[in-house]
Design goal:
The chain has 255 residues and is mainly beta. The chain has 2 domains: 98 residues, Thrombin, subunit H (Beta Barrel); 113 residues, Beta Barrel (Thrombin, subunit H), CATH 2.40.10. It is 8% helix and 32% strand. The chain is built from 3 helices and 15 strands. It has a 6-stranded antiparallel barrel. A 6-stranded antiparallel beta barrel has the order 10-11-12-15-14-13. Strand 4 and strand 5 form a beta hairpin. The radius of gyration is 16 Å and the shape is globular. It is found in: Secreted.
C-alpha cells in the first residue's frame, strides 16, 4: 500500500545561472551526453552537486527523501539540461514534498520526494520528462537497466564533471531480500535491487535520488547501498517507483 500523506516545505524562489563545483560520480561508468538522458538533473546544495533527480513534468523533479528531508530549502538549486555539472541554468525551488512515511531509519522505506520548481522548465532535446511505470507494474528479473549520475567513482573517490552512465541488471525480489537480510532488510513492496554479481559497477555517494531506467521507464530511485560502494554480493537498493505512483499523482494534483 502507499501512504498518501506528505510533508510540504515552501518558500518563494526564482531561477539563476552561475557556475558551481561538483562532488562525485558513478562507479565504473562512462561519459555520456545529456541529450541521451534529458530527464536527468543535478540537485545541488550550497553550490555543490548533492544528488540526482529526474524530470516528471515541467515543474516537478523526482528524487530521494534522504537528499532533501533534513536540509534548508533555500540552499537548493536544480540543474537541468547539462552534461557538465558545474555549468548551466540553475533553477530555484518553491517547495519540497517528502513522503510522510520516511523516517531516515532502517529499513529505509518511503525514501521518495518531489521537488517543485519556482519556474517551469522549457522542454528541448536536452530537457524532457521521464516516463513512469504503471501502479505496481511488474519488472522482469534480469532486465538490463541504466543508471545515470555524477556520483563518486568509488568510496572516498574523486569527482567527475561529466554525466556518467552504467548498465546493470535488475535482481529478483527474492534475491534482493536474501542478499540484504543483514544490511537492510529490503522489502519487495518498497525496494528494487540492481547491480552486477561480481560487483564493481553501480551507485555510490552523490548518485542518490537518481533514476534507474528500463526500456525508457523509470523503475527506481537510488536509495542506499552497502559500503564500500558496489561491493560484490550486495547490489544497490532503489525505491520501487511503481509502488508510489498513486502518491506521486496525488501530490501533483495538490500542486
Amino acid at each position: 500500500y502507499v501512504l498518501l500523506a506528505s510533508l510540504t516545505i515552501a518558500v518563494l524562489s526564482a531561477s539563476q545561472a552561475v557556475p558551481l563545483d561538483i562532488d562525485s560520480r558513478i562507479v565504473n561508468g562512462t561519459d555520456v551526453n545529456i541529450r541521451d538522458y534529458p530527464y536527468m538533473v543535478s540537485l545541488q546544495y550550497d553550490g555543490r552537486h548533492l544528488c540526482g533527480g529526474s524530470i516528471i513534468d515541467k515543474y516537478n523533479i523526482l528524487t530521494a527523501a534522504h537528499c532533501v528531508a533534513t536540509r534548508d530549502l533555500e540552499g537548493f538549486t536544480v540543474l537541468p539540461g547539462s552534461t557538465i555539472v558545474t555549468y548551466g541554468t540553475f533553477m530555484l525551488i518553491e517547495r519540497i514534498i517528502v513522503h510522510s512515511g520516511y523516517t531516515g531509519l532502517k529499513p529505509y522505506r518511503n525514501d521518495i520526494a518531489i521537488v517543485h520548481l519556482a519556474q517551469p522548465l522549457e522542454f528541448s532535446e536536452r530537457v524532457k520528462p521521464i516516463q513512469l511505470p504503471k501502479v505496481f507494474e511488474a519488472i522482469p528479473e534480469f532486465s538490463e537497466a541504466t543508471l545515470t549520475g555524477w556520483g563518486y567513482h568509488m568510496t572516498g573517490g574523486s569527482p567527475q564533471e561529466t554525466l556518467q552512465k552504467v548498465d546493470i541488471r535488475v535482481y529478483s525480489d527474492l534475491e534482493c531480500e536474501m542478499l540484504h537480510l543483514e544490511t537492510g532488510p529490503t522489502s519487495r513492496i518498497f525496494h528494487i535491487c540492481a547491480g552486477v554479481p561480481e560487483g564493481g559497477k553501480g551507485q555510490c555517494n552523490g548518485d542518490s535520488g537518481g533514476p534507474l531506467v528500463v526500456g525508457g521507464i523509470q523503475i527506481g530511485i537510488v536509495s542506499w547501498s552497502k559500503k564500500p560502494c558496489t561491493l560484490e554480493g550486495y547490489p544497490g537498493v532503489f525505491v520501487k517507483v511503481s509502488t508510489y505512483i498513486d502518491w506521486i499523482n496525488c501530490n501533483l494534483k495538490v500542486q
